[in-house]
Amino acid sequence: MLYWLTELSDGGDLFNLFRYITFRAGGAFLTALIFGFIFGRPLIDVLRKRQGKGQPIRNDGPEGHFVKAGTPTMGGLLIVGALLTSTLLWARLDNPFVWMVLFVTMGYAAIGFADDYAKVAKQNTAGVSGRVRLLLGFLIAGLAAAWAAWHHPAELTGQLAFPVFKNALLDLGIFFVPFSMIVIVGAANAVNLTDGLDGLAIMPVMIAGGTLGIIAYAVGRTDFTEYLDVHYVPGTGEILIFCAGLIGGGLGFLWYNAPPAAVFMGDTGSLALGGALGAIAVATKHEIVLAIVGGLFVVEALSVIIQVFYFKRTGKRVFLMAPIHHHYEKKGWAEPQIVIRFWIISLILALIGLATLKLR
Q: Which of 200, 235, 259, 340 would you label with 172, given CA atoms 20 to 30 Å apart?
């Protein structure tokens, strides 16, 4: 919205700053951060009053989690609110990729909100039916994927780009949309599975979001893409503003989610943020790099898949408990120890993902 102040500029005044994506990204970060600090405590008070007993705790979960009973959920509303406000305020609203990512984020936030509401209202961990969640998730992802394919350059439409290998493309054709749907839905559910300890999911999401923001900015500039030998996708640079808002809103949320958490993110936040990461990867043609940058989320999801598959086949478990962060809890690791070590792993994977821009 503020970008239109450039129409008042003569090229040498304050308004000219709004032409620069990096300046507006800084504004989005600060806006989201301040939003989180201002509305965090009032939101938590409202959620605590409305929810009463707070988020239900699994009976078969780690014993240490029962002390968290009564903690309100749906804290993702704070992140999504900060993210939406900062993006609408600082991004160019004529950019199709900004709207594509916002559509996925808000759509998945709505699914997560319905699931959180059902859990709190019924005071059990069932929530909305898994089939309904997946159906709605795939519907939103399909619309977003088709929108992205429509706005990609003609030479990249339907193509899957590979990191490291210069100019390597795989023509998926009509299968690009189903593939992208799997990427978005998979990312959303992987982040959702990771959100099981105080502060565990939000920091890796911010790290991945910041990394994808840098990638989006790079592939949206011809000078950068020529230097790095990556594919140019016009318009993706504006996604950096969304990612800056994600980091600012995430930090504002982490202020209240740091152990011991005053509020949980809930599916409202985890599905929305995971879906956003998947949407950014699809928009920037970096779907495979997302699997590297978000490697922690991949491992968390795989641990559940392996556990379920192996248990059904043999009646035995590979892990003491899945997702894998609960396995380490069962082994006696302290919650902060798990969280911080997983943060470190996320940062390492993000740096590896960034390195693929130059390794050609």
A: 235
3-class DSSP assignment, residue 255: helix
Q: Confidence class of residue 57 from pLDDT cuts 50, 70 and 90? A: low
What average pLDDT does range 132-140 have in this prediction? 96
Query: 164: left (phi > 0), else alpha (psi -120 to 50), else beta?
Result: left
Neighbours of 57 (CB within 10 A): 16
What is the model's pTM? 0.94
What digits encode the pLDDT tens for the residues 242-282? 999 999 999 999 999 988 889 999 999 999 999 999 999 99
Distance set, CA 100 to CA 114, 131, 166, 307 (Å): 22, 24, 27, 34
- Burial (CB < 10 A; 0-12, 13-18, 19+), residue 267, is buried
Measured CA to CA, the distance from residue 97 to residue 282 in angstroms comes to 10
Domain ranges across the chain: 2-355
76, 268 contact by CB (below 8 A): yes
Diameter of the chain measured on Cα atoms:
72
CA distances from 107 to 102, 125, 224, 269, 319 (A): 8, 22, 32, 11, 33
Tell me which residue of 50, 197, 66, 70 sits closest to 117, measured CA to CA.
50
